[in-house]
Fold this sequence. Notes:
This protein has helices at residues 25-30, 64-67; strands at residues 3-4, 13-19, 38-44, 51-55, 58-62, 70-72. 14% of the residues lie in helices and 40% in strands. It has a single domain (3-72), classed as Ferrous iron transport protein A (FeoA) (SH3 type barrels, Roll). Strands 1-6-2-3-4-5 form a six-stranded antiparallel beta sheet. By secondary structure, it is mostly beta strands.
Amino acid sequence: MVKTIADLKIGEIAVIKSYQDHDLTLKLLEMGFIPGSTVMINYKAPLGDPISVRISGYNVSLRLDEAAIINVE
Protein backbone atom coordinates (compact mmCIF):
# COMPACT_ATOMS: atom_id res chain seq x y z
CA MET A 1 0.00 0.00 0.00
CA VAL A 2 1.30 3.43 -0.94
CA LYS A 3 1.39 5.94 1.92
CA THR A 4 0.85 9.66 1.30
CA ILE A 5 1.35 12.80 3.37
CA ALA A 6 -2.42 12.84 3.99
CA ASP A 7 -2.06 9.46 5.77
CA LEU A 8 0.53 10.71 8.29
CA LYS A 9 -0.34 11.46 11.90
CA ILE A 10 0.71 14.61 13.78
CA GLY A 11 4.43 14.42 14.64
CA GLU A 12 5.09 11.59 12.18
CA ILE A 13 8.14 12.00 9.93
CA ALA A 14 8.47 10.62 6.39
CA VAL A 15 10.56 11.02 3.23
CA ILE A 16 8.98 12.14 -0.05
CA LYS A 17 9.32 9.50 -2.77
CA SER A 18 7.13 10.49 -5.74
CA TYR A 19 3.90 12.11 -6.94
CA GLN A 20 0.68 10.53 -8.16
CA ASP A 21 -0.57 13.51 -10.19
CA HIS A 22 1.84 15.09 -12.63
CA ASP A 23 -0.40 18.16 -13.16
CA LEU A 24 0.49 19.48 -9.68
CA THR A 25 4.13 18.36 -9.69
CA LEU A 26 5.57 21.76 -10.66
CA LYS A 27 3.53 23.57 -8.00
CA LEU A 28 4.66 21.10 -5.32
CA LEU A 29 8.31 21.32 -6.40
CA GLU A 30 8.14 25.13 -6.20
CA MET A 31 6.72 24.81 -2.67
CA GLY A 32 9.73 22.69 -1.66
CA PHE A 33 8.25 19.19 -1.83
CA ILE A 34 11.28 17.66 -3.51
CA PRO A 35 11.71 13.86 -3.61
CA GLY A 36 14.15 12.84 -0.88
CA SER A 37 13.09 15.68 1.46
CA THR A 38 11.95 14.90 4.99
CA VAL A 39 8.47 16.07 6.02
CA MET A 40 6.67 16.17 9.35
CA ILE A 41 3.03 16.90 10.09
CA ASN A 42 2.79 19.79 12.59
CA TYR A 43 -0.95 20.03 13.03
CA LYS A 44 -4.30 19.60 11.34
CA ALA A 45 -7.19 22.05 11.27
CA PRO A 46 -10.14 21.15 13.53
CA LEU A 47 -12.03 19.56 10.64
CA GLY A 48 -8.85 17.92 9.29
CA ASP A 49 -8.29 20.18 6.29
CA PRO A 50 -5.86 21.92 5.73
CA ILE A 51 -2.76 20.48 7.37
CA SER A 52 0.55 22.11 8.30
CA VAL A 53 3.70 20.35 7.10
CA ARG A 54 7.28 21.11 8.18
CA ILE A 55 9.71 20.80 5.27
CA SER A 56 13.18 22.25 4.67
CA GLY A 57 12.99 24.32 7.86
CA TYR A 58 9.67 26.05 7.24
CA ASN A 59 5.94 25.33 7.60
CA VAL A 60 3.64 24.93 4.62
CA SER A 61 -0.13 24.53 4.63
CA LEU A 62 -1.56 21.95 2.25
CA ARG A 63 -5.08 20.92 1.40
CA LEU A 64 -5.71 17.23 1.93
CA ASP A 65 -6.27 16.65 -1.79
CA GLU A 66 -2.78 18.06 -2.48
CA ALA A 67 -1.23 16.04 0.36
CA ALA A 68 -2.90 12.87 -0.96
CA ILE A 69 -0.86 12.91 -4.18
CA ILE A 70 2.56 13.02 -2.49
CA ASN A 71 3.86 9.49 -1.87
CA VAL A 72 6.09 9.05 1.18
CA GLU A 73 8.05 6.28 2.83
